[in-house]
Amino acid sequence: MADVKTTKKDMFNEVIALAKAADRQDVVEFAEHEIELLNKRNSADSKAKAKKAEENAALGEQMVEFLAGVETPQTTLNIATAVGVSTQKASPILKALEADGRITKSTEKRKVFYTIAA
Questions:
Q1: Do residues 115 and 64 lie in contact, with contact meaning Cβ atoms separated by under 8 Å?
Q2: Above 80 in pLDDT, residue 102?
Q3: Is the pLDDT of residue 15 over 70?
Q4: Cβ 34 vs Cβ 64: under 8 Å
Q5: Fewest Cβ atoms closer than 10 Å to its Cβ: which of 3, 55, 105, 114?
Q6: Alpha-carbon distance values, 49 to 1, 44, 58, 98 (Å)
Q7: What is the pLDDT of residue 2?
Q8: Which stretches of the chain are DSSP H helices?
Q9: CB 66 within 8 A of CB 83
Q10: CATH of domain 8-116
Q11: What is the average pLDDT across 105-115?
Q12: Lowest pLDDT segment from 32-41, 83-92, 102-111
């Protein structure tokens, strides 16, 4: 049998079931309110993640356009500067673009260069 992780929502549902059996409406209301708060927070987290993914996709497109417009391989710093972000922000986006096969990565004397994929 696989281990199943119990979530806060599961725990509050158990509390509701026990409170109903004990005829404790105040506890039921409390647990239902806590579940509402959890749902609200999860919804906000999902929206924030979706917004961030959308922004990263747009930055990725800008990076690909930049690389398509230059003749020489570019460093992460050059690409980040061209699209107006930090190298820390650009690096994971570039890795994702490389994994998708849209750009290629080469290393020369410990320096990483990116070019548009052929």
A1: no
A2: yes
A3: yes
A4: no
A5: 3
A6: 33, 9, 14, 21
A7: 60
A8: 8-21, 25-68, 76-83, 87-99
A9: yes
A10: 1.10.10.10
A11: 93
A12: 32-41
Rounded Cα gap, residues 82 and 109, in angstroms: 23
Find, among 65, 53, 66, the residue nearest to 93 by Cα: 53
Q: At what angle do helices 25-68 and 87-99 cross, to 10 degrees?
A: 80
State residue 15 phi and psi, 5-degree precision.
-60, -40
Tokens of 23: 């005829």
CA distance 23 to 72: 74
Q: What is the pLDDT of residues 22-81, one digit of tens each?
A: 999 999 999 999 999 888 888 777 788 888 888 999 999 999 999 999 999 999 999 999
What single-letter amino acid sits at 7?
A: T
